[in-house]
Write a structure and sequence with these properties.
Chromo domain-containing protein; Chromo_domain; OB fold (Dihydrolipoamide Acetyltransferase, E2P); 2 helices; Chromo-like_dom_sf; 3 strands; alpha+beta; elongated
Length: about 90
């Protein structure tokens, strides 16, 4: 059963003293590509990459569409196709 709650006005913190920004979000930055795969659909094939993001663990890496990531983050692909082989060997040693 719910009961009526009387609030204490002395416990309310004024927000104008705390510098709260309008947007409390931050942008993640991709660190490296961990893996690649091609998913075959009925009429086309979609290339995906597994991306490790800053401030996340390897287990939290996400699969992203390779074409979109090349447009947004071209610096991840500047080392060519063999760049992820060194990454894979580095991760296997960890």
């Amino acid at each position: 059963m719910l009961k009526k709650c009387m609030g204490d006005p002395s416990l309310i913190i004024p927000t104008e003293n705390i510098g709260i920004k309008g947007s409390l979000s931050y942008s993640e930055i991709p660190v490296q590509i961990l893996d690649r795969q091609v998913r075959k659909l009925r009429t086309k094939e979609v290339a995906s990459i597994k991306v490790l993001w800053r401030n996340q663990f390897v287990e939290e890496a996400t699969w992203e569409v390779e074409e979109d990531m090349k447009k947004r983050y071209p610096h991840l692909f500047k080392f060519g196709e063999n760049a992820d082989q060194g990454t894979s060997s580095l991760l296997s040693t960890l």
